[in-house]
Amino acid sequence: MTGQARAGRPNKLLRNLNAKIASIPMILTALVIFVGGTLWTVFYSFTNSKLLPRLSFVGFDQYERLWAAPRWVTAIENLAVYGILSLIFSLVIGFMLAALMDQKIRFENTFRTIFLYPFALSFIVTGLVWQWVLNPDFGIQAVVRSMGWTSFTFNPLYTPEIVIYGILIAALWQGTGLVMCLMLAGLRGIDEDIWKAARVDGIPMWRTYLFIVIPMMRPVFITTIVIIASGIVKVYDLVVAQTSGGPGISSEVPAKYVYDYMFQAQNLGQGFAASTMMLVTVAIIIVPWAYLEFGGGRKRG
Amino acid sequence: MADVGTLNTTSAGIDAVAPKLGEGPSGPRPRPAVSARNIMLYGTLTIAALYYLLPLYVMVVTSLKGMPEIRLGNIFSPPMEITFEPWVKAWAQACTGLNCDGLSRGFWNSVRITVPSVIISIAIASVNGYALANWRFRGSELFFSILIVGAFIPYQVMIYPIVIILREIGIYGTLTGLIVVHSIFGMPILTLLFRNYFVSLPEELFKAARVDGAGFWQIFLRIMLPMSLPIFVVAMILQVTGIWNDFLFGVVFTRPDTYPMTVQLNNIVNSVQGVKEYNVNMAATILTGLVPLIVYFVSGRLFVRGIAAGAVKG
Q1: Cβ separation A1–B138 shorter than 8 A
Q2: How close is the nearest chain A Cα to the Cα of B5, in Å?
Q3: B231-244: b or e for each residue (b if 16 or more CB lie within 10 Å)?
Q4: CB A163 within 8 A of CB A247
Q5: 3-state DSSP percent of chain B in helix, strand and coil, to 5
Q6: Rounded to the nearest 5°, which phi and psi values hold at B252?
Q7: CA B178 and chain centroid, separation
Q8: Which residues make beta-bridge pairs with A47?
Q9: What is the mean pLDDT of chain B?
Q10: CA atoms in the 13 A half-sphere facing the CB of B33
Q11: Is the pLDDT of residue B55 over 90?
Q12: Residue B105: which region, alpha, beta or left (left: phi > 0; alpha: psi -120 to 50)?
């Protein structure tokens, strides 16, 4: 943007100069970190960098190796299961809680505080707490067994087939409060007259929600879905705290795969390829949303 | 009238008293306090609330028990003998690797990371937002768009280049490095927040100040800042909780002696050697969650606004 120098009015130029100087951190971040960093990683994902990044290109080898690795495939499967279920459950639970909260109830603030406080806690704290609650020797399983049902088994964190559901329980505990809040804000935005009209027409409440209110809340739903989805792709801390990817590799997720290959296995090329796949995943989610939201037609630049 | 209200709980009750009321009550019928609908409503909400409170209860209860009691009982039973020893141990003696000075080290590291990161990121983002709202220049919207799109890129994609940059500057592994990283990744959402806020302020104020000859910084410091206390508070809540709770950047960009609290906590609890001291672990977990919880409880309504505005991050 150096071409500005030949602008006619020097006075305006001077004022703009201040704004430009003030925006240097933003410009640097946008160009160097976000654009530069991303391109750099994508670029180097086509090399066979090991301990240090180096420029020996191997084409799509890293990607072929990635998709042949059982650990990566497990990570993707886990992410798919975790992602789809956490999207559905957090929307359903969040909306139902919001609908209940919207019934002009007493103690609304108390309930909201209780539902939302887990969101203030980090994923590490969340993961460690649920690791404890789900501990087979002391937690829920032990409690139910001590009440007499001795064959009761609920041990998700040590059972490879269902470990991802154990992580899901903790994730929902942490995140549904936020969804509830967003949905509640959306419900409050619906005109009271809509409800009156529906009541006059004798439409039952659940039908009003399903066929009138929810379609009207489309923007809120889209925003919420984008927020949840971009969080899902990044899920990392929770898994580290709850299971460290175990038992074996059964609760592996892509973000953890990337970290392990970049900083522990010293196999940078794999890490770059895996992180590029994460980027592609996010792009698949974001691009349609951006298209819907901004309709492709951008205003002036 | 109050008596009638309590009698009106069932239709049978209404039938019983209706003849005695003569003319009947005037005005809208009082809403019964106990109805099937209310029982369902509050019942469901209470059960949900219990589910959300359960882990907190378990944490507190476990942290107040001695180890023998933990081995005997279940996690839901209240402590028979309350002891604060696990808390002392978690704070001052628990071991991570070679260091055995407890979470206190991580706590002070987190403070030394959070305070400057919050100040720097808010300072930069507020000026950015102000420039974008009132002093647009060619390209400013483009950089802003890149910034916002960048907020959705998984951090993993940008981490390694940042490691290289920080190493070249010579601040990799230091608290300064991590502060820079937090300031960078806090920028998109905070800039959006401030830009939207400054756009919503009446433009006449800005124009009047310009007519009076005020410049970029003068308008910012004398007019915009005093008017934007609420948004600064929201941004602060957002950043304090976000940075305090961060784990990924902490583990990538620091070394054992500069680990923030979250990283240290994970290392204490998930260490493989030795007997697992569940009570100490839970005390450590509460200690780590305490700062964001305090922020949450103190700020109340503002916290909700903050996360609604910044839910995109994290």
Answers
A1: yes
A2: 18
A3: beebbbbbbbbbbb
A4: yes
A5: 75, 0, 25
A6: -80, -45
A7: 19
A8: A57
A9: 84
A10: 7
A11: yes
A12: alpha
User: Mind listing the pLDDT tens digit for each residue in A20-72?
Assistant: 888 898 999 999 999 999 999 999 999 988 888 888 888 888 899 999 999 99
All domains of chain A, ordered by start, with CATH? 64-294 (1.10.3720.10)
Say how far apart CA A78 and CA A252 lie, in whole Å: 7
Task: Point out the residue among B131, B270, B308 whose CB comes nearest to the CB of A19.
Answer: B131
Cα distance from N-terminal residue to C-terminal residue, chain A: 12
Hey, are the CB atoms on A120 and B241 less than 8 Å from each other?
A: yes
Question: ipTM score here?
Answer: 0.86
Distances (CA, A) of B224 to A148, A169, B30, B87, B310: 66, 44, 50, 45, 21
- What's the Cα-to-Cα distance from A166 to each of A85, A131, A155, A257, rounded to whole Å? 12, 9, 8, 19
Here the tokens at position A295 are 């309709």
Q: Is A9 helix (H, G, I), strand (E, B) or coil?
A: coil
d(CA B109, CA B105): 6
Q: Which of A129, A236, A274 sits opposite B59 (nearest CB)?
A: A129
Q: Nearest by CB to A33, which of B124, B162, B289? A: B162
What's the token pair of residue B94?
């628990």
The rounded distance, in Å, linking the Cα atoms of B121 and B180 is 9
* Chain A stretch 54-93, residues whose beta carbon is closer than 8 A to a beta carbon of chain B: none
Assess contact for B302 and B233: CB atoms under 8 A. Answer: yes
Whether A16 and B164 lie within 8 Å, measured CB to CB = no
Q: Which amino acid is at B65?
A: K
Read off the pTM: 0.86
